[in-house]
Design a protein that fits this description.
3 copies of one chain form a homotrimer. A two-stranded parallel sheet of chain A has the order 1-2. Chain A has a two-stranded antiparallel sheet with strand order 3-4. In chain A, a hairpin with a 4-residue loop joins strand 3 and strand 4. In chain A, helix 5 runs parallel beside helix 7 and helix 14 runs antiparallel to helix 17. Chain A has a single domain, classed as Ammonium transporter fold (Orthogonal Bundle), CATH 1.10.3430. The longest helix of chain A is centred in the C-terminal third of the chain and has 32 residues. Helix content of chain A is 69%, strand content 3%. Chain A is built from 17 helices and 4 strands. By secondary structure, the first copy, chain A, is mostly helical. Chains in contact: A-B, A-C, B-C. Chains A, B, C: It is found in: Membrane. Chains A, B, C: Belongs to the ammonium transporter (TC 2.A.49) family. Rh subfamily. Chains A, B, C: It is a multi-pass membrane protein. Chains A, B, C: GO terms for molecular function: ammonium channel activity. Chains A, B, C: Its main location: membrane.
Chain lengths: 469, 469, 469
């Protein structure tokens, strides 16, 4: 059948997985394979046991919950309970981005087509289960994790951070190393997200800080750690494998365009009301502007040719990252366009000057140029969100201000006529909120770099690098 | 223009369509082509006439129905009438699965890329029209078939069973044989579905029994019948054409991933309330677990290589089939994960051991390994649904029980306070319902095998095998 | 990195962009590149300034608008204000069609894979911003353009007309020429749309007249103008580059199938109530019939082979265009099927006989055969809409008649009991409305041809053909 081709295509990859295959007998390989499979199966089995112990349906999905029986028309029927209806079409859009978009975006390497798409598929499938658990531990109800469509959306978004880190490391690690890294990264991600979202109470509706910035710097730090252990010629041989061809670049465009198309859903899925509407408009405009600007900068910075497919595949998306943290704020349509232009230009400049500099001087190898698509635009997003937080006034946002920045609500609970509910917050000022936005950025970058570096080190020192896969 | 390539690519296919092209003159070929086209056109014309005679808009889509005028705000406006709104985003998801997912999944054969996608497209487009008619004949209102978006969803789902059978036969038949087979299969499908759904009253929300099991065994039986007529060397030459290459395997991954992504919509489109919410969660978890388990088993069972692309493309999806019949039951999140693991493992084992055994001993050639993705997981789904039906209690489901198993409602009509409507059923016990689930499985397998075999025989004995296409 | 391949693949394209590269020094090229980039950047900057001056959020997306605060439950909450919810899933579907569907559909040329997808991406991203502005100038409120999700949907649809024209010109122009053409075309499109929609008040829910017919004839006229300036051997060398290969044809099928799948959303996005439901059904049936008929006609008209991939990629979609203008009328299910059959057959005949004739006799080169997919089926759509308008009666449509044909409402404002609002129109008769439908078709074709020709001429005479890109 067609399994041969996987073998053939990955023949080269084995060279870079730090195995000395030629001096090892087939028997040793078989033992290793056996070991690897047992690790993978144990992991899935562990997840199953955790779900047995901790999972239950969210009341809205539970038949035994009387309030949500399927067809009640009167008495107790609350349309807002039907969260799945609200989430479903956006959930599917995000699902496309995570499982198809990221996978095909990384398929531009002609030698790693199967690996990019296959590893992305496997990694995401196993880690969404882990992400549901990690997130759930912060919100246990009677020692159980209530699972709803919202949990699935949040799991997809959490896994995106690992797939971003994978973009840095593609071709530099074995699959098993990626999985171990993903397990750790998801756990750290959920802690960082919990602190940022529920303790620091910052606004990051499109997850530019918690997902994009975090994933990028985690991956870069892990790559830095891994490069400590590499011999010079290994690194060179890695890079020689990193070329694309005409067909692989077209496959990558499938990933790019689906990410570009569904990004408005990614940035607005967890919002509602005018926040959600505004988020869709801002993301759309920012992406359009970053696409146009990336093309223009690519034309000038690529000598002797027209456009560089690397810019077309990546920098066109930078606007989606850069708008993420302020996507539901009153940035105005022109603000979104300006931010998209800035991000597109920054990203192309990053690919042309910053990534080669980092590679040469810091010896951090960034296979997909994640720093230019997720790293720098993510930091930009955080800075912009701080500026907008600093100028946000009650007269501009009315009570919507407390939806976006809950900590700015007054400390004394008051019944609000407009939204017919009690509002209570920490009484923060605009400048304080801006400070917290910056604080969350610093925390995220520091946590990502420290834990990413440690994960990279442990991956090298533990036995996982002897794995076959 | 680019039509040449179709010719070139299918040059080989002609060899396997039981034509002795080399001894036939061009004139004979032209007559045959003429005949084929007349058959295709007559078929479309026949469908047109049937629609003239029998079709009308469902009241909700009919301007002449006063209750559903477009903007009534008061008096008679019932949001539940807007069925198209409820269905639309899920309808589009299923549309992607049927027209893109199935077609590209079969594109892994490097010699049949056009045929897989093109035949899938043509077959599905002509058969959805036929499926609307066949389904409608069971629900005539004033001798007319009322067509709504729900009809379109049901037609898409019905056609999936033919596309599954096509997966068994790909490369073994001519296009015209596939169409004739599809016409018969849709008619039989609708009868079997009617008996199972409205007479036996079984639960099969994700259509694992009616679509997946039915389509797989129908196709396998037809393949068995066709192999009776083949000479030994024909079969060998067929198989030699069945190889993939790097690019064709990447195209197939587009199909796999879109099927994987939109499966929650497939399994939940016709449900509502907490049933629908639960179905989305169960399908998501089952698919994630089957994907991870399929990779793990692929690693151990593929000697000398890492993963087998056949497993990655197919077995990762087995969880969606296996959960289908019990998708709206209280299987619990861990139950969905366990079932997905079971299905993923079963499917990989099937590809490695069972399909070769069937091929060798029963002489049934299964081109895409449909038995491992749709056949066995479909049977597993039916068995699991029987177990869950046997343990379903009123205290766990409340009145939701009668939505899932309408026959379990008491025979005496009673007004239910929770759902504000009268409920009446057949007063079945839990064990009786379990028995009916098994009965529907046995009926479906027997009907599929008998009619599939007869269709295969008739395809060989009638003149269709003289067709050019 | 992988930018080389863009250069290599477009090496040929440069030959046809009327540059005499071999006699020009690198210095001249660098100056030109600089100039081009400045044009592109100035354009994006100009758009930014226009947005600063004219854009604001639509009230429903504006936090400062009290009526639309995010969680008001009582008092003033109007679910109909949540336009983004209504539009969102269809908006994403249309987004897929415009950015992915059109781009990949044009990827069938093996030499222009990057150009088709990349230019489509760039052009669409820059022009959606321009389309929002042009459309907005007709609906200023306090000298500002209120931007909602509806604006985004309308911008996507407007840009489709430019992408259709690009299909005619692909490989015949430089990127900069396409952008200049697009800027002009969008402005003309919005004027023509305004006159047709708000002055002539015609029905064209699926934009068959305003988008498909307009885009096709605009492009054909521009191609005619460009061919005046070409030397004979240039044209021949252009054509020699227009071949597809096996892989490029499979990429094109991705575009075809996504267009086919999401067309029901394209044709129904701006409708509501039973109009929208009917539009989904009609589009689905028309597309199914045109797909089946295109395959049948392709089989008979393609000598010595089975099917022509050009027909499979394009003519299968003709039903979506042909139903567009009458998609919300009571055409009946069989009417939709009949129209789809007609369009499919017409389109295949066009590819086989009409396009070669036009090329030979009128010297209009139509790279993608746009005349057969958008031109003729668009004219057919307009004629059918006139016939249906002529036979539309109040007894068949009730008050829905005034939603579809607002000018047919009586001139004296009357309070309508069914829809609880005042209705006022121009008191047109059915035959008058039919006449206006034809008038709008004639206006659109004339405007498209005249402005397209002038655009082509100006593109040749202005300095843009010295551009590098």
């Amino acid at each position: 059948m067609n399994g041969d081709f996987w073998r053939r295509s990955n023949m080269n990859q084995r060279n870079i997985s730090y195995e000395f295959s030629n001096i090892k007998s087939l028997r040793v390989q078989r033992i290793r394979r056996m070991g690897d499979m047992l690790v993978l199966l144990s992991l899935q089995l562990f997840l199953l046991i955790m779900f047995v112990e901790f999972s239950k349906y969210y009341p809205d999905a539970d038949a035994s919950d009387l309030h949500t029986s399927s067809h009640p028309v009167f008495g107790g029927f609350d349309p807002n309970l039907n969260t799945y209806r609200k989430y479903n079409s956006m959930f599917q859009d995000i699902h496309v981005m995570v499982f198809l978009g990221f996978g095909f975006l990384m398929a531009f390497l002609k030698k790693y087509g199967y690996s990019s798409i296959g590893f992305n598929f496997f990694l995401a499938a196993i880690l969404v289960q882990w992400a549901i658990l990690c997130r759930g531990f912060f919100h246990l109800s009677n020692l159980k994790i209530p699972i709803s469509v919202e949990s699935l959306v949040e799991a997809d978004i959490a896994v995106a951070s690992v797939l971003i880190s994978m973009g840095v490391l593609l071709g530099q690690t074995t699959l098993l190393q990626l999985i171990i890294m993903g397990i750790i990264e998801i756990a750290v991600y959920q802690c960082n997200f919990y602190v940022g979202d529920e303790i620091l109470k910052i606004a990051d509706a499109g997850a530019s800080i918690f997902v994009h910035t975090f994933g990028a710097y985690f991956g870069l730090a892990a790559s830095f750690a891994l490069s400590r252990f590499k011999r010079k010629n290994d690194i060179e041989s890695d890079k020689s494998l990193e070329s694309s061809n005409y067909t692989s670049d077209l496959f990558a465009m499938i990933g790019t365009i689906f990410l570009w198309i569904y990004w408005p859903s990614f940035n607005s899925a967890e919002l509602s009301g005018d926040d959600q509407h505004r988020a869709i408009i801002n993301t759309y405009l920012s992406l359009a502007a970053s696409c146009a600007t990336a093309f223009a900068f690519s034309a000038i910075l690529t000598p002797d040719t027209k456009f560089d497919m690397v810019h077309v595949q990546n920098s066109t998306l930078a606007g989606g990252v850069a708008i993420g943290a302020s996507v539901n704020m009153m940035i105005q349509p022109y603000g979104a366009i300006f931010l998209g232009m800035l991000a597109g230009a920054l990203s192309v400049i990053g690919y042309n000057y910053i990534t080669p500099w980092i590679d040469r001087n810091l010896h951090i190898h960034d296979t997909c140029g994640v720093h230019n698509l997720h790293g720098m635009p993510g930091v930009l997003a955080a800075l912009v969100s701080a500026i907008l937080a600093a100028i946000a006034t009650e007269s501009q946002y009315h009570t919507g201000l407390y939806d976006i920045f809950p900590a700015r609500a007054p400390t004394i609970p008051s019944f609000n006529q407009d939204v017919y509910r009690h509002i209570q917050g920490d009484g923060r000022t605009a400048m304080q909120q801006a400070g917290y936005q910056i604080l969350a950025l610093i925390m995220t970058v520091v946590v990502a770099i420290v834990t990413g570096f440690l994960t990279g080190i442990s991956n090298k020192t533990l036995c996982f690098h002897y794995s076959f896969l």
